[in-house]
C-alpha cells in the first residue's frame, strides 16, 4: 500500500509564520477554524484527523528545499522563536525558555529547524524525506 505523500516546500515561506501557513495548507482540509500557529499545534496536525490524513495514518512528508529552511530556521529564527515564547508562556516555564534563549544566543542547543525535524520524527507513522 502506498503511503500518502505530503509536500512541504521551503520555497513557499521564509519565516516561521509562513511555515505555519504552509503546514496548515498541506495538512488540513475543510476546517472552519484556524489552527494555532505554534509547535504544539504543528505536532497535533501531524497526528492526523484534520482532513488530509486520518489519525495515525502512515504518511510520507517530503520537505522540498529543506536546505533553505535549515538556513531560515537557524539560530536567528530560534532566538526570535524563544523571545516570542517568553511573551506567551506560562509563568512557570519562563526560566526554562530563558535558558533556551540564552543558549540560542550563544549558538548552542537545537535550532528551530532541528526542533521541527525532531517533532516530525517523533511520529512513528511519518516518514520524512528532506530534499
Low-confidence stretches: none
The total count of helices amounts to: 6
**CATH fold title of the domain at 1-68 and 125-131:** Barnase, Chain D
Shape call: globular
Topology as a string of helices (H) and strands (E): EHHEHHHHE
Gross CATH architecture of the domain at 1-68 and 125-131: 2-Layer Sandwich
Largest sheet: 3 strands, parallel
Adjacency order of strands in the biggest sheet: 1-2-3
**Rg, nearest Å:** 15 Å
In CATH, the homologous superfamily of the domain at 1-68 and 125-131 goes by the name: Barstar-like
Percent of residues in helical segments?
A: 40-55%
Mean pLDDT: 95
Our measurement of the CA-to-CA distance between the termini, rounded to an integer number of angstroms, reads: 23 Å
| Beta strand count | 3
What proportion strand? Answer: 5-15%
CATH class of the domain at 1-68 and 125-131: Alpha Beta
**Structural category:** alpha/beta
Summarize the topology.
Layout: E1 4-9, H1 16-27, H2 39-47, E2 59-64, H3 66-72, H4 75-88, H5 94-105, H6 112-121, E3 126-130
Parallel strand pairs: 1-2, 2-3
Keywords:
Barnase, Chain D, 49% helix
Written description of the protein model:
- The two termini are 23 Å apart.
- The chain has 131 residues and is α/β, with parallel strands linked by helices.
- It has a domain at 1-68 and 125-131: Barstar-like (Barnase, Chain D, 2-Layer Sandwich).
- The protein has helices at 16-27, 39-47, 66-72, 75-88, 94-105, 112-121; strands at 4-9, 59-64, 126-130.
Quick structural gist:
With 131 residues, this protein is of the alpha/beta class.
Amino acid at each position: 500500500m502506498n503511503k500518502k505523500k505530503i509536500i512541504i516546500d521551503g520555497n513557499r515561506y521564509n519565516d516561521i509564520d509562513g511555515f505555519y501557513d504552509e503546514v496548515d495548507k498541506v495538512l488540513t482540509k475543510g476546517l472552519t477554524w484556524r489552527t494555532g500557529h505554534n509547535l504544539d499545534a504543528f505536532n497535533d496536525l501531524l497526528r492526523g484527523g484534520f482532513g488530509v490524513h486520518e489519525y495515525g495514518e502512515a504518511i510520507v512528508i517530503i520537505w522540498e528545499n529543506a536546505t533553505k529552511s535549515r538556513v531560515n530556521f537557524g539560530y536567528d529564527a530560534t532566538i526570535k522563536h524563544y523571545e516570542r515564547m517568553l511573551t506567551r508562556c506560562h509563568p512557570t516555564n519562563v526560566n526554562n525558555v530563558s535558558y533556551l534563549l540564552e543558549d540560542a544566543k550563544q549558538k548552542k542547543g537545537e535550532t528551530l529547524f532541528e526542533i521541527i525535524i525532531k517533532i516530525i520524527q517523533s511520529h512513528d507513522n511519518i516518514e520524512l524525506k528532506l530534499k
